[in-house]
């Protein structure tokens, strides 16, 4: 092989490697997996957990925000998803009591520089039920560095109350304030179960900020609604799970209505968003 051909091949290899780095996508998922309740018959966790693992691995998700995760479920997921690291604490005591809203992320792609869980409350550092909420509510956040691109991503995952209107409104104010408080380079992902429809005032307040609703992606697949209540064959039109973003180019939004015989993976559909 002469020197000209060798240089040409080296040049092509350089272009290919750089294309692979800079064309890498980011797949994130928000997923309320439904807390473990052995009395739920066909819908119980033991009947769903293996298929949830399979879904995460087949989709090759980079970042997953989950809701309604009890400590026993955390232990199972951490044991079986060794390729992922997890952050987040339980909402009742800031340790392991009650539900988590954890963030799982790929160990081989991201390094973490900071993270915390705060309560949706006037005193966000202290475990508490606030305003007119029925239960304590939390938001977990992480600053992740993409090990290939060296870019910083601020990721937040939350689960809003299902009752209190004041709590719902003030939770949005608190989270938007937290995003502004945390230093980031403009790449932000806010996801979770917001227990609110898209036309509600709190969701509109998020959209009126600098965050975009991933549902508006040109490539949008699956039913509109994200909550199924474990009911098969109904019109799924209740959208309460969201991925909001800033600083990314969106590639696709997919709402997966996956069934396991006579049930679903959860009473919420997993929402997967891919960014370029």
Automatic annotation (TrEMBL):
<keyword id="KW-0255">Endonuclease</keyword>
<dbReference type="InterPro" id="IPR050410">
    <property type="entry name" value="CCR4/nocturin_mRNA_transcr"/>
</dbReference>
<protein>
    <submittedName>
        <fullName>Metal-dependent hydrolase, endonuclease/exonuclease/phosphatase family</fullName>
    </submittedName>
</protein>
<dbReference type="GO" id="GO:0000175">
    <property type="term" value="F:3'-5'-RNA exonuclease activity"/>
</dbReference>
<dbReference type="GO" id="GO:0004519">
    <property type="term" value="F:endonuclease activity"/>
</dbReference>
<dbReference type="Pfam" id="PF03372">
    <property type="entry name" value="Exo_endo_phos"/>
</dbReference>
<feature type="domain" description="Endonuclease/exonuclease/phosphatase">
    <location>
        <begin position="29"/>
        <end position="268"/>
    </location>
</feature>
<dbReference type="InterPro" id="IPR036691">
    <property type="entry name" value="Endo/exonu/phosph_ase_sf"/>
</dbReference>
<keyword id="KW-0540">Nuclease</keyword>
<keyword id="KW-0269">Exonuclease</keyword>
<dbReference type="InterPro" id="IPR005135">
    <property type="entry name" value="Endo/exonuclease/phosphatase"/>
</dbReference>
<keyword id="KW-0378">Hydrolase</keyword>
